[in-house]
Amino acid sequence: MFEWVKRQRDKIGSPTLDWVQVEVTTYCNGSCVYCPHTLMRHHWANRHMPMELFHELIPFLKYTDLVYLQGWGEPLLHKDFFEMVRICKDQGKRVGFTTNGMLLTEDMIRTLVDLQLDIIGISLAGTTAATHNRIRKGTDFDKVISHLERFRRFKAEKKTQNPALHIAYLMLKSNFHELKEILPLAKRVGAKQIVASNQTLIIDPKLSTEAIFNTTESTDYYRNTLDEIMHRAARENIIFEYHGPGLDDGSVGCRENVHRACVINVEGEVVPCVFTNPVLSSHYVFKDQSLPLTGMSFGNIRNESLTRIWNKKEYAGFRALFDPETDRKPGQTRSEMPQCCVRCYKRLEA
After folding, report:
1. Is the N end or the C end of the chain the one with fewer CB atoms within 10 Å?
2. E strands of 239-317, at which residues?
3. By C-alpha distance, which of 198, 178, 201 is closest to 244?
4. Which residues fall within 8 angstroms of residue 111, CB to CB, at 6 or more apart?
5. What is the pLDDT along the chain (350 residues), one digit of tens a residue?
6. 8 A C-beta contact, residue 83 and residue 77
């Protein structure tokens, strides 16, 4: 393993990344029933990334093609969000973010189109107002869809395809049946991509029963339904991606792409993924066990360059654990991985 780490460190001088995810704020105007922001509200630290810290990022943007301005908060609440997008676009980067859609006023829509934003993701938890509003409390399904329809009309007026609209649908047992109506909804608002994801960070033990992978008797139903939607989507020229309803305990890889991506949190800490973000400090549920939720940082861009942080022995060694081609003894991978990764639903999604 250590030879692999050395080769990688020698080869990379500066990281070549698929994306850099930047947490611009931890404030949110929603109260989703499953979100750490809601469940940890009594000790949650709300903060915006200062612009002087964001400016520290500019030299590092050359390492990536895509900058995704997203973390544990609603990006549009940051008063300098549009300036952040402009800075990234001026550096020739593709830029995207995910929003709950409540703040997409007509002026905001026009600004985002004029800035040539590349991707906007919209978080949904149902295809009806009753279901979505019950789960994503503080948001209003009808208002969000109305905003997206306005977005589509304005893009048509400007004769532009950007920003591309992606729908992020959170699958739960109680809303899975509504996923069958996601394609008509996507066509209505002009979305060309849908990602159906699982509840992979469970803070409240009561929500464990909502995870579709916490069952065995319905796995075939979930998988067959998702496959059917994927085939229908292909006929409509819509990309439909989903995370399976099963768990793979032997998985080495990670859906968070820790080899070629990183997260820079609201305070400048460089972390492998949003689940290892130090802003999360609580407990989570994994297979009916309550486990500590602790952060993992390999450095802060206030003090060190991203290149130096990326090439640290500890960070390179961490990434090596997720490489299936790394030479290791049988069983060695799980024993060397941090416990937060061994016991992570995101890594085990089949």
Report:
1. C
2. 239-242, 261-264, 270-271, 282-286, 289-293
3. 198
4. 82
5. 434 434 444 444 567 899 999 999 999 999 999 999 999 988 889 999 999 999 998 988 888 999 999 999 999 999 999 999 999 999 999 999 999 999 999 999 999 999 999 999 999 999 999 999 999 999 999 999 999 999 999 999 999 999 999 999 999 999 999 999 999 999 999 999 999 999 999 999 999 999 998 877 788 999 999 999 999 999 999 999 998 888 777 677 788 888 899 999 999 999 999 999 988 878 899 888 999 988 899 999 999 999 999 999 999 999 988 876 654 444 444 557 888 888 888 888 76
6. no
Rounded Cα distance between 165 and 122, Å, is: 7
Burial of 116 (0-12, 13-18, 19+ CB in 10 A): middle
Amino acid at position 135, single letter = I
β-pairing, 289-293 with 282-286? antiparallel
> What global pTM score does this model have?
0.90
DSSP 232: H
C-alpha dihedral (336, 342, 347, 350), degrees to nearest 10: 110
Distances, alpha carbon 97 to alpha carbons 2, 86, 94, 220, 313, in Å: 36, 13, 11, 33, 31
Phi, psi of 262 (to 5 degrees): -150, 165
SS3 328: coil
Give the CB-side neighbour count of residue 95, counting CA atoms within 13 A: 22
Distance (Å, whole) CA 274 – CA 211: 19
- In which element (H, E) is residue 320 found? helix 313-320
Contact predicate 344/286, CB 8 Å? yes
Q: Where are the alpha helices (DSSP H) in 115-195?
A: 129-135, 141-158, 182-189
SS (H, E, C) 80-116: CHHHHHHHHHHCCCEEEEEECCCCCCHHHHHHHHHCC
* Structure token digits, residue 38: 């809601």
